[in-house]
């Protein structure tokens, strides 16, 4: 009987802490959106992401349309690249700016509307409950849906390589829908400027013993917009992932 | 005579390029070796026979074999060095682009605070 109050108090403290996390965190959550010529969709993505995050940071990778203007109108903060760096470069800039901003939790989604911003809480949940440090929104965890066949095969190969590099089973290593705890990005930020970032950051952070968890998400593919990693990019990603497993300490630390 | 004239013109042109810093010392040295050989062959034809002896000692039949083989090897080396240099410059340009983007963000923040 005398031992009962202690677990109860511990439970109360834990749940109180959990509740506080959930209440406090919205202002400490930032959504980073890399964008290139996304005028048509960015405004809607930003405004919906703002429902779940304290701030939305759009990294305009030298768009030739009104992506930046639309993002600003929708309430996002915009960082502009004067030259096109690629998705990895845009995310790296976004991470560094958000670290300087003092945010504690980082969410990344695509600006083309492929990801549903209403699924952000799903990605945040394991982080806020301290069950994971990195959460990947997997497009294939519950079936790969309308993912094109070439992408499906490429994604499978790269996910196997990334699982090997990170030491955690990952089903969708190329997903841009992710959530990170601040400590992860303070530990390491990827160096790849292009699509290599997705596997590279997982391989690098695996040395920091961060917990990786996947949650199922839905993704929309636009047949007319054939953007994304090519077969050539796939080989580059594979090479950098294999190389990443050999690198021990020579990666860039996430200094803001 | 024509070979000597061409060699001299090219030698002067290459030197001008070096003075104007359009080419590096390594590139200059390679071109100079070629132009000097051309001038020597044009002015002293016996030099060609001397060259045959040198190239045969190196395992090549004639000087032209040597020049062709050496040029191909030099081009491969140059392509490798240039590719490496371009990758390094690309990395620097990307880092500068990122730095400018972050600096502009900081400046905007400071402006809004003041």
Mean pLDDT of chain A: 81
* CATH fold group of chain A: Spore Coat Polysaccharide Biosynthesis Protein SpsA, Chain A
Helix/strand-derived category of chain B reads mainly alpha
- What class do helices, strands and sheet pairing of chain A give? alpha/beta
Spatial extent as radius of gyration of chain A: 18 Å
Number of strands of chain B: 0
Strand content of chain B: under 5%
Structure description:
The complex is a heterodimer of chains A (256) and B (114). Chain A is α/β, with parallel strands linked by helices. Chain A is built from nine helices and seven strands. A seven-stranded mixed β-sheet of chain A has the order 3-2-1-4-6-5-7, with helices on both faces. In chain A, helix 3 links the parallel strand 2 and strand 3. In chain A, helix 2 packs parallel to helix 3, helix 6 packs parallel to helix 9 and helix 8 packs parallel to helix 9. Chain A is globular, with a radius of gyration of 18 Å. Chain A starts with a helix and ends in a 10-residue tail after the last helix. Chain B is mostly helical and 114 residues long. Chain B has a domain of 51 residues. Chain B has four helices and no strands. Chains A and B meet through strand 3 and helix 4 of A and helix 4 of B.
